[in-house]
Design brief:
The chain is mainly alpha-helical. It has three domains: 9-161 and 357-386, Rossmann fold, CATH 3.40.50; 168-228, no CATH class; 268-355, Tyrosyl-Transfer RNA Synthetase, CATH 1.10.240.10. 60% of the residues lie in helices and 4% in strands. Strands 1-2 form a two-stranded parallel sheet. A two-stranded parallel sheet has the order 3-4. The structure holds iron/sulfur cluster.
Length: 391
């Protein structure tokens, strides 16, 4: 996540709530992408530091736990820059120019000169961020799937160029032997079936067989995977997009919630401000007078009810709105109460971190060290595959 200042409820309901769940299901790496912020905000870096810490505090306030996940800051793991550089050597320019967001963002942010080398290359940096951890899954919304697809292509191209280590065939033979006679025979016959007939099931079964080999080292495992589909050793495995549930959290005006649209409620806002924002929210424009019936489907407040209210309250809204039995201010009451109650939890969790910023620094420093341990290993593999591991 880029550091863009205090996070809002759109971030919470769209991303963070899902991360809180994922951290108990997977080994997770969550990082503040401070270098990514520079791709569009290179002309003013004065707020980067403040925003980095705001972002981490909001994550912690949302329930991301430093003991259940790795929380770090991108620039504290300089290996990301090295992998970005090396991947940029093999990434064709046309791939980057065709990324849909490249043109879109340039048009949207037309007050900025985004015809820069850094902005064009940000999908390569993103690929480096993902491939560094040999990530299996990347939690993204549907609009980000093309970026994960590009990461897969960049990994495939890298493996194609550098996966042919010297003596690969001999090393694979040794690795196959380590599986034991029975498994080795099965592996070979599944590989033959896949290569001769393209049978995907045979490929999947063979992969599962490799996966189940406890006695085979990580390096050998990657050779065995690579040998299956005719490639060399897989240095950078291709990740999958893990589609996250679509957030239904709109902004105060019914559009996407965004700080730049001025329609956001931040995760830790004062009660008075939340009240004021919701009380002045637009409603169904057809309800001019209290006696005019409305339609919740045409009202942004209803979208908030869908997230925050019980079935009973929603029923009360439906009946009251369509029969002009309740006023809009009355209708907004339960939403104000629910948003304030949710914020109370965030405020309380954040208090400790705001009072003792060194705790946040320590969490990030430890998370960054753990991330670096993984990153160093990946870079050792990458450098040696590319023939750059000389001393
Ligand atoms: Fe919207 Fe509620 Fe007013 Fe109906 S009563 S228009 S749902 S705020």
């Amino acid at each position: 996540m880029r550091p863009t200042g205090p996070l809002h409820l759109g971030h919470y309901h769209g991303v963070l709530k899902n991360w809180v769940k994922l951290q108990h299901e997977y080994e997770c790496f969550f990082f503040v992408a401070d270098w990514h912020a520079l791709t569009t905000n290179y002309d003013d870096t004065s707020k980067v530091e403040e925003y980095v810490w705001d972002t981490v505090i909001d994550w912690l306030a949302a329930g991301i736990s430093p003991s259940a996940s790795n929380i770090f800051v991108q620039s504290k793991v300089p290996e990301h820059a090295e992998l970005h550089l090396l991947l940029s050597m093999t990434t064709p320019l046309g791939w980057l120019e065709r990324v849909p967001t490249y043109k879109e963002q340039q048009e949207k942010l037309n007050n900025k000169d985004l015809a820069t080398y850094g902005f064009l290359g940000y999908p390569v940096m993103q690929s480096a961020d993902i491939l560094m951890y040999k990530a299996g899954n990347v939690p993204v919304g549907a609009d980000q799937v093309p970026h994960v697809e590009m990461t897969r292509e960049i990994a495939r191209r890298f493996n194609h160029f550098y996966g042919k280590e010297p003596g690969f065939e001999e090393k694979v033979e040794l690795a196959i032997k380590k599986m034991g006679k029975k498994n080795a025979k099965l592996y070979k016959s599944l590989r033959k079936k896949f290569q001769e007939t393209g049978d995907q099931e045979a490929l999947e079964t063979a992969r599962a067989l490799v996966e189940a080999q406890g006695s085979v080292s990580l390096n050998d495992r990657e050779r065995l995977y690579g040998y299956l589909d005719g490639a060399g050793k897989i240095i950078l495995p291709e990740p999958q997009a893990l589609l996250t549930p679509v957030s239904k959290m709109p902004g105060l005006d019914g559009q996407k919630m965004s700080k730049s649209y001025g329609n956001a409620i931040s995760m830790r806002e004062s009660k008075e401000s939340v009240e004021k924002k919701i009380r002045t929210m637009p409603t169904d424009t057809k309800r001019v007078r209290l006696t005019d019936p409305g339609n919740p489907e045409d009202c942004p407040v209803w979208e908030f009810h869908k997230i925050y209210s019980s079935e009973e309250v929603k029923d009360w809204v439906q009946k009251g709105c369509t029969s002009a039995g309740i006023g809009c201010l009355e209708c907004k009451g339960p939403v104000i109460d629910a948003v304030c109650a949710e914020q109370q939890v965030f405020v309380e969790r954040a208090k400790e971190y705001q009072e003792s910023p060194e705790i946040v620094r320590n969490i990030v420093s430890e998370g960054s060290e753990r991330a670096r341990d993984v990153a160093r290993e990946t870079m050792d593999d990458v450098r040696s595959a590319m023939g750059l591991a000389y001393k």
